[in-house]
Design brief:
The protein has 2 domains: about 1-85, Rossmann fold (3-Layer(aba) Sandwich), CATH 3.40.50.20; about 90-205, Hexapeptide repeat proteins (UDP N-Acetylglucosamine Acyltransferase, domain 1). The strands form 4 sheets. It has an 8-stranded mixed beta sheet with strand order 6-9-12-15-18-21-23-24, with helices on one face. A 6-stranded parallel beta sheet has the order 7-10-13-16-19-22, with no helix packed on it. Strands 3-4-2-1-5 form a 5-stranded mixed beta sheet. About 40% of the residues are buried. The protein is about 15% helix and about 30% strand. It is of the alpha/beta class. This is Probable acetyltransferase EpsM. Pfam families: PglD_N (PF17836). It comes from Halobacillus halophilus (strain ATCC 35676 / DSM 2266 / JCM 20832 / KCTC 3685 / LMG 17431 / NBRC 102448 / NCIMB 2269). InterPro entries: AcTrfase_PglD-like (IPR020019), PglD_N (IPR041561), Trans_hexapeptide_repeat (IPR050179), Trimer_LpxA-like_sf (IPR011004).
Length: about 220
């Protein structure tokens, strides 16, 4: 499968390494607004993502290779592709249960573990060494940073950003677009649009600001 990446920063470099390690797909283009024009290097086209329509075809798939959750959602809305035109990439060292479900657009990085009946929705980042235990649900555009551990039946709302080495105990819900500080221990539900830090994690009096987006879902 030919892959078109949108984004050419540090997160994209990691994704490019994963695609090479998978050895199943070929990167044909890397699109980023830092490029003013199109050029080709080592067989890969580089240019602004406004060129997506002319490069995309029935044999290619798209992946948003940008770490910022809000920007990923913004771009997905702007380019208006069908879900089946996106692709997920999974590092070969990741362990994925046969009963787990991973939707298009999601990236699973090295040494991650996704266990039985876990559901990962679209355009999520499951970073290096993350553990997603049984029956967890991760909604669209969320980011689980390196070494996050979600024990059984944890729900992560859309766009949530969970800091490195955070642990969530069984059954808790982390609300949409919330931010959990690195190293936190989540022992109770965290409301949406809130920041929480510490062991145990406590909500700060600082609402997370999410840029309103126009367009579709």
């Amino acid at each position: 499968m030919e892959i078109i990446l949108i984004g050419d920063g540090g997160h994209s470099k990691v994704i490019q390494d994963i695609i090479i390690a998978e050895n199943k797909h070929k990167i044909v283009a890397v699109l980023d607004e830092k490029y003013l024009g199109i050029h080709k290097e080592n067989g890969i086209i580089y240019g602004p993502f406004t060129n997506l329509n002319q490069l995309n075809n029935q044999d290619s798939r798209v992946l948003i290779a940008i770490g910022n959750n809000q920007i990923r959602k913004k771009i997905v809305r702007e380019i208006k592709l069908d879900e089946n035109q996106f692709i997920s990439v999974i590092h070969p060292s990741a362990i994925i249960s046969p009963s787990a479900k991973i939707a298009p657009g999601t990236v699973v990085m090295p040494n991650a573990v996704i266990n039985a009946n876990a559901v990962i929705h679209s355009h999520c980042i499951i970073n290096t060494g993350v553990i997603v235990e049984h029956d967890c649900t991760i909604f669209n555009y969320s980011h689980l940073s390196p070494r996050v551990t979600l024990t059984g039946n944890v729900t992560v709302g859309e766009g949530a950003n969970i800091g490195a080495a955070t642990t969530a105990i069984p059954g808790v819900t982390i609300g949409e677009w919330s931010v959990i500080g690195a190293g936190a221990t989540v022992i109770r539900d965290i409301p949406g649009y809130q920041k929480a830090v510490g062991c145990p994690a406590k909500v700060m009096n600082a609402e997370v600001q999410v840029q309103p987006l126009k367009g579709g879902v």
